[in-house]
Each structure stands twice: as C-alpha cells, then as structure tokens.
Design brief:
There is one protein chain. Helix 2 runs parallel beside helix 7. The protein is globular, with a radius of gyration of 21 Å. It has 408 residues and is of the alpha/beta class. The strands form four sheets. It has an eight-stranded mixed sheet with strand order 11-10-6-2-3-13-14-15. The longest helix has 22 residues. The protein is built from ten helices and 15 strands. About 2% of the residues have low confidence. Strand 10, helix 6 and strand 11 form a beta-alpha-beta unit.
Length: 408
C-alpha cells in the first residue's frame, strides 16, 4: 500500500522541524523573511503506514564552473535541495553497508545482504540490496528547477518575455546545447543548466529536473554506492510537490514515458537498470520556509545561504558546499556527502568485504583515472550514454574535479 502524499510530506517536514536552529534560516523579522527549498527521501514498507525519513537537504546554489578544478573532491558541485537529499541518502546507504560488512550479525531495516543466487553478470554483482518490501518517495517544497518548473517560472514573471540567450552557436546560429534555466521560455522539454539567473556565475550543473529524469534510469544510487548496492530497489516511486508547485502537464513532459523520456521508455539494460518513471502527486502541506510562507509583516524576501544535509547518521550545516565555519582549504571542512568522503567510505566497505582486486583497482587510481576503467561502471555508463543521447540530448559532463581516492 502506497502512503498518501500528505503522509510523505509530513514525514519530511516533521523531521526538518526537529532539527536545531543552526540548520535553518533565521527567524522572520519585520525587515526580511529568509526562504530555502527543502527535499527529503522517505522509505515506506508496503505493509506499514508510517514512513521513515532517510535523508533531507536544503539549498539552492552550485559551484561555478571556473572553481570545479579546485574542488579536489572536497566541495559539493551542486547543493540544490534535491541533490543534497540524494547525496545524503547515498551516504546513509554507505553507512548501512559498512555496518553489515563489519558484523555478520548486523541487521539493517533498509539494506540487506544479497543471496548468492541473486548475483550474476546480467543482474549485478553488488553484495547488498535495499529490502524488497520498501518503497522510496521524495518530497520537495519547490518544483524542481528546469523543465518541470518552466510554466511556473513564466507565470511568476512581471514581464513574461524570455530572457535573452547568451549567444547562438556561431556556425549553426542555433540555440546553445545547454540553456540557463530562464533562457528561451519557448523551448520546453530540453536540458537546462543551473543557475537560472543571468547575473550568476556560469556552471555546467544540470537542472534538478534533468538530474531527476536521469535518476529514473540510473536509480538514486551514486557511482560509488552502485558498486555495493543493487539498483533494482533504489528507484523513486513518487515525487511529492506542494499543489501550488505541481503542474501536471509540465511534470508529464519532463519525467513521463510519453514526454521527453519516451525514446528510452522501453529500454532494458544489464545490471538491474531500467526506466522506472515515478508518479508525481500533490500535497496540501507547505514548508514553513518556502517563498509562499513569507508573512505580510516581513517587508523583504531573501534567500538563506545555509545548506542542511541530514540522515539518521549525519547532521551537517554547510556554506558554499563545505562545513559551516571552516575555511576553504581546511581539511576538517569536508562534508560527509562530498565526493572524497563518499569514495573513502566505499573503500572502507570494500576492505571489510575482502574484495582485494576491486579495492586495489580503485585505491590505486585518481578519480579521473577510475572512470577510464569502464569495466567497473560499464552497465551504469551504458545507461547514462543511452539516456543522454536519446532523451536528454545536450547533456554535458561537469568534468575537471580530480582527486586521489583514499580510504577514510
């Protein structure tokens, strides 16, 4: 039995409300009200009614492309709420895998050990899986940036004229491969990049609409987690949005099998990957720090620069992709959900599992070199290649961040 949209939303909202004040925007004053988007991932058993929040994230910024090469795996590239929630979910899975790998008697309510008969080249060799009787759901307080929110964006403009495009391709005189979120409103169903604002530094981070659309094929698992966890049970069942943010035809165009994802709707891949579109439902609940929650007594609406990244094992407050209060180069400023820490945790699990060949293959590589060892990620890479060629054309990788992969 699938939980109601309001139950999923309440689970995330109640979990956020229980956090200490340092993870939240400042309280409203007469001068201003701070807002921030919130997303969370919820697990629900098919035979139980009470869902459980596995991760949540807040935030709305990303790393400029001219700083990616300096990130060294230590700074998040994208701290929009949906992406933070997904990264925190993957960190939670890694923690559960580490517990199971450390103790043969450990039991997790979310992750289980796979049986020998479940392992094969076609179905994947990952040692763990999410429990078969669990469903995963996401709540977001705002429509995902990009294609799913274009109608809302146009409606909100005082002047609905599309923002001018930076420049046309010099040879073809056509649109650039990757538009900013607010460029050329008339172009729907296409890949867009963050940020939407024309006066913001440029990035190659794709919109949350595009990333969630791709997750319908690759699952919620990140690359490192996909080495350990079978993707079969790691797909979203539903995306829950406030009714004011839920434009049905926009979501169908963006995510649905009859929209831009139609070219891959019937594809099947090795490794347990498939196209599994989530349903989009509306909730009547609104987030206390959404733009729409601004009290009339506050004169100005401002954005919050606090990013919260939380799961049952980790609670962090981040600023600009690093732990709050830490300097840019401070090694203690690494978030638990940054690439360097996540890959380090993956190596810990592999070491506990006793997989020396795989462990050596990864630990003797830099992050960039590891991606060239396509046999480690061949199935996942094939999915991404097919989807970005057939459905999400114009997808450009946000490369340049390289670092040594080390346990820790």
């Amino acid at each position: 039995m699938e939980p109601e949209a309001d139950d999923i939303a309440t689970t995330v909202l109640d979990t956020y409300d229980a956090l200490p004040a340092k993870y939240k925007p400042v309280k409203a004053t007469e001068d201003f009200f701070q807002w921030v988007p919130l997303s969370g991932i919820v697990a629900a058993k098919t035979n139980e009614q009470k869902p459980r929040c596995l991760s949540l994230g807040t935030g709305m910024k990303c790393l400029p492309m001219n700083q990616v090469a300096e990130a060294n795996g230590s700074i998040l590239h994208d701290w929009h709420a949906e992406i933070v929630a997904i990264r925190a979910f993957n960190q939670f899975l890694l923690h559960e895998c580490l517990e199971l790998a450390t103790s043969p008697t450990s039991i997790s309510p979310i992750v289980r050990r796979r049986e020998v008969h479940e392992l094969s080249e076609s179905d994947g060799l990952q040692p763990f899986s999410i429990h078969d009787d669990l469903q995963l759901h996401m709540y977001s307080s705002e429509a995902p940036c990009g294609d799913a929110s274009m109608e809302l964006l146009m409606e909100a403009q005082v002047d609905a004229t599309p923002w001018p495009i930076d420049q046309l391709h010099p040879a073809t005189k056509k649109l650039p491969a990757l538009l900013r979120g607010r460029e050329s409103f008339a172009e729907l169903g296409i890949v867009r990049r963050k940020p939407a604002r024309a006066d913001s530094p440029q990035t190659l981070s794709k919109s949350c609409s595009d990333k969630l659309a791709l997750k319908q094929c690759t699952s919620l698992l990140s690359a490192c987690t996909s080495l350990l966890v079978d993707p079969g049970n790691a797909y979203l069942e539903t995306l829950i949005l406030p009714r004011s943010q839920c434009v049905e035809h926009a979501c169908e165009r963006c995510f649905g099998p009859r929209g831009r994802m139609k070219p891959v709707a019937n594809l099947q891949w090795n490794g347990g990957y498939t196209f599994r579109p989530f349903k989009v439902h509306a909730t009547e609940h609104e987030f206390a720090f959404s733009r729409r929650s601004k009290p009339e007594s506050s004169r100005e609406l401002r954005t919050s620069n606090i990013t919260a990244a939380c799961n049952p094992h980790v609670q962090e407050a981040l600023i600009l992709g690093r732990l709050q209060g830490r300097q840019k180069l401070d090694p203690k400023g690494l978030s638990a959900i940054c690439s360097k820490r996540m890959w380090g945790m993956t190596l810990q699990v592999l070491a506990m599992l006793g997989t020396p060949r795989l462990l050596q293959s990864i630990s003797e590589s830099s992050h960039a070199q590891m991606w060239k060892k396509s046999e480690l990620f061949a199935d996942r890479q094939r999915v991404k290649a097919d989807v970005t060629a057939e459905a999400l054309s114009g997808w450009i990788r946000n490369d340049g961040d390289d670092f040594e992969v080390e346990p820790g």
